[in-house]
Amino acid sequence: SNRRLEIRRKWTFRPRHGCKGELRLPKLNVVFARVMVVMSALSTLEELSGLATGRIASDDAMASALAALKDGLGASDAAVTYGFGRGFKHFGTCAELELSETSIWWVNRELSNRGRPFGFHLQDGKVRRLAELGEPLDIEYAASLIPTRGATAQMLLVRGPWAGGMSREQAQVLRAAGPALAILVEQQIAIAGAEQEREQLNAFSAI
Questions:
Q1: Distance (Å, rounded) from C-alpha 73 to C-alpha 158?
Q2: Alpha-helical regions (H) of 154-177
Q3: Does the predicted model carry a pTM greater than 0.85?
Q4: Which range, 18-22, 34-38, 164-168, has the best average confidence (pLDDT)?
Q5: Dmax of the chain from CA atoms?
Q6: Helix (H) or strand (E) holding 123
Q7: Please, are residues 118 and 158 in contact by the beta-carbon 8 Å criterion?
Q8: Which residues, other chains included, contact 54 with Cβ-Cβ below 8 Å and sequence gap of 6+?
Q9: Which is nearest to 78 in space by CA: 93, 64, 63, 97?
């Protein structure tokens, strides 16, 4: 009949026990979108783990990891900062950070005090409008400490912006990325230290 041929946006099914239930397509789409977000987050973390352990070959594991985080978080830039002398240096997807060393120091201190990542805006070079990750508040940057041995200066900084804040999954990826990044940071600092020593030796031999 025409009724049977009617195209509806609602499916009706009968489970084995005879209880009638309904599965609406809009709800199905929401569930599917949620599953895709979770799978994307897991894929990002799996790639970071592979790069950190060497399971995934890369000429520059740190650059690959930051590129993966940039894509996974929907960020425009991603960078890792670390203490160097009395200041900070960084590896990142951009050549320079917009944050001054004073702002980086302030963010690092705030992360140490809070013990958890947070989001913020940058206005006139100063950190403003702090927000908890996962809250429905617009943020421009997000920051998280990287748990390296005997040091608290290592941080992950990502720039959005995120209208309405980061999603819960994005915030979880930011937090969970720390251990893999810690391995990569230690490797990069060791490489940088060896290069610096080599340059110093070359300078002495040239005297």
A1: 8
A2: 168-176
A3: no
A4: 164-168
A5: 98
A6: strand 118-123
A7: no
A8: 61
A9: 93
